[in-house]
Write a structure and sequence with these properties.
Number of helices: 3
Number of domains: 1
Helix content: 25-40%
Strand content: 25-35%
Bound molecules: zinc ion
């Protein structure tokens, strides 16, 4: 993803925020992510929600303080091990760009 305009960033953010818990679950199933926890072997995952929508965690890029990454997460209910799912990758799954549009 290179040289997005401000408007494109806002749209991308709004679209990412529109992804529902059901869609995230669909994505996790489609990508075969519901596997045994690599830390404890349990099979009991939960993706946290806020106001019935999947929780998003943002990180700051140290080398580019104005930039950052958003992640959905899935937490093992047995041991707390947490997997982060890059929100941009999930966004691509639901809002694929048109060919030739970057
Ligand atoms: Zn675990």
């Amino acid at each position: 993803m290179t040289e997005m305009t401000y408007e494109e960033r806002v749209k991308l953010g709004e679209q990412t925020l529109s992804i529902t818990s059901a869609q995230l679950r669909q994505y996790q199933l489609e990508k075969k992510m519901i596997t045994e926890c690599e830390a404890c072997g349990a099979l009991d995952w939960e993706s946290p929600e806020e106001n019935a929508m999947p929780s998003l965690t943002a990180t700051t890029a140290v080398r580019s303080p104005g930039a950052g990454n958003w992640f959905f997460s899935m937490i093992c209910n047995n041991c707390g091990h947490t997997r982060l799912i890059n929100a941009g990758t999930v966004w691509q799954y639901f809002f694929r760009k048109e060919p030739g549009n970057g």
